[in-house]
Structures are given as C-alpha cells and as structure tokens.
Amino acid sequence: PAGSQVAPSIRLWSDFLSVPLHPKSVYVIRQYLHDGDCGCLEAFGQGESLLQDPACVEELEDRLHFYVEECDYLQGFQVLCDIHNGFSGVGAKVTELLHDEYSRKGILTWGLTPVLSAVGVSWIFFFFPQDPQNSFYRLMNTALGIAHLARHSSLFCPLSLSGSLGIK
User: Pick from 22, 84, 95, 156: most CB atoms within 10 A?
Assistant: First the structure.
C-alpha cells in the first residue's frame, strides 16, 4: 500500500540502535554470528586467537587508521570490553595493538561485566546460567582480561553494577 514502510531487517545488535553507526565502526566476526558454525565466544583464548589471523588484524588496522587519520589531534583511545567472556581476549589483543602502534597515546580501558541474578529466573539468569563450567569460564576470562588489559592500558577500570564483578 502507498505510504507504508517496510521494516528494516535486523541482523546485528547495532541494528537496534536509534542512531546508525558508520559501517567502518562495526566489524562482524563471522564465526560467532548467531547463525555461525562455532557457537558462542566463551573463552579468553578463543578471542585472543581471532586476532592471530593476519586478515583479521589487517582489517582491524585499516578501520582504526581510517578514524585516526580523521583526527586533528589524537589524544588517546577508550576501549570498552566485556571481560567475562571471550571478548576479554579480543580486547587484550586490541589494547596490545594500540599500545604497540600508538605508545605515546593514552588508552583508557573499561572492563565491563553484567549483573547476575541470584534469585529466581530472570532474563539475566536465562542468558548467564550459573553452572560450574560457566562460573569457571567467567572467573578465568575476568582474571585474564584484567591482567592483560591492565598491562597495555594507561588506566584500566573494571565497571559493573555488581560488587563482585559478577563472579561467585
């Protein structure tokens, strides 16, 4: 019908934002899409190994240089990184790359963790069940993430609405 709008297709988390992001600011990791063949990115080593691939590193550097070249006076970087899952490994390698390539610039890193529900069944509990294997992964990812991110950051700040960084 005339005047009707077709709903845009939703493929990525960034499609839910009310402000569209520049295409170069979103890098899709194909193996870990919801319909990918590897499942979820749950371990530090999985995230770290993603940036061992030369094609992935080259793509990341190209996107980074695109934005750096647009700066009149680059003062530093802010990195927001989930530290409770495999993205802690990705963030560790990204901050290492930034530290190596822009050693005279500041790197402020925020290590983010979600709040876990301890009571009943909620949407948070649904996504992060409290079984021993998941708790172990969360603990290891968080510990390795904090150690590696702090090593290559000017300032590392863990950030969570939970007093325990979501670790039991």
Answer: 84
Question: 2 in a domain, yes or no?
Answer: no
d(CA 152, CA 53): 20
Q: What b/e sequence results for 106-134 when a residue is b if at least 16 CB atoms lie within 10 Å of its CB, and e otherwise?
A: ebebbbbbbebeeeeeeeeeeebeeeeee
Q: What is the pTM of this model?
A: 0.76
Residue ranges making up the domain that contains 43? 15-160
Residue recorded with tokens 């590897």:
38
What averages of pLDDT result for each successive group of 10 residues across the chain (168 residues)? 57 69 77 59 88 90 92 94 91 95 95 71 48 82 95 93 67
166 in a domain, yes or no? no
The DSSP annotation for 122-158 comes to -HHHHHS---HHHHHHHHHHHHHHHHHHHHH-SEEEE
Residue 135 lies in a domain: yes
Residue 10 makes CB contacts below 8 A (sequence gap 6+) with: 16
Check which CATH number belongs to the domain holding 147 and give it: 3.40.50.1440
How far is it, in rounded angstroms, from Cα 154 to Cα 76?
A: 10
Distance (Å, whole) CA 16 – CA 13: 6
